[in-house]
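User: Can you recover a sequence for this backbone? Please restate the input before giving your answer.

Assistant: Of course. Working from this structure:
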C-alpha cells in the first residue's frame, strides 16, 4: 500500500470519527497503517543517507516530513478510538 492510499484511509477514518462512527474503525487497521508508515520512514531514511544529489535529498526530506505527519495523525486517531 502506497503512502497516498494510507493517507486516504486515514482521511476516511477521520471522517468517520467526525460523524460519530468511530466504533466502526478497528484499532488493528490503524495499527497496521502505522507499521507500514514506520517501514516507509525507515526506507526513506536509508535512501536519504545514500543520496548524493541535493535535489534528491530535498525531495526525500519532504517525503519524510509527510510520513512523519501521517504517523502523528494515525497515532492521534488510535488514541481517540480508545485502543
Amino acid at each position: 500500500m502506497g503512502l497516498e492510499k494510507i493517507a486516504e484511509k486515514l482521511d476516511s477514518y477521520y471522517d468517520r470519527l467526525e460523524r460519530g462512527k468511530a466504533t466502526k474503525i478497528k484499532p488493528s487497521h490503524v495499527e497496521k497503517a502505522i507499521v507500514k508508515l514506520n517501514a516507509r520512514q525507515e526506507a526513506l531514511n536509508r535512501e536519504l543517507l545514500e543520496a548524493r544529489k541535493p535535489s534528491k535529498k530535498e525531495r526525500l526530506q519532504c517525503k519524510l516530513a509527510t510520513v512523519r505527519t501521517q504517523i502523528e495523525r494515525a497515532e492521534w486517531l488510535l488514541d481517540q478510538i480508545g485502543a
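That completes the design. The two ends are 23 Å apart (CA to CA).
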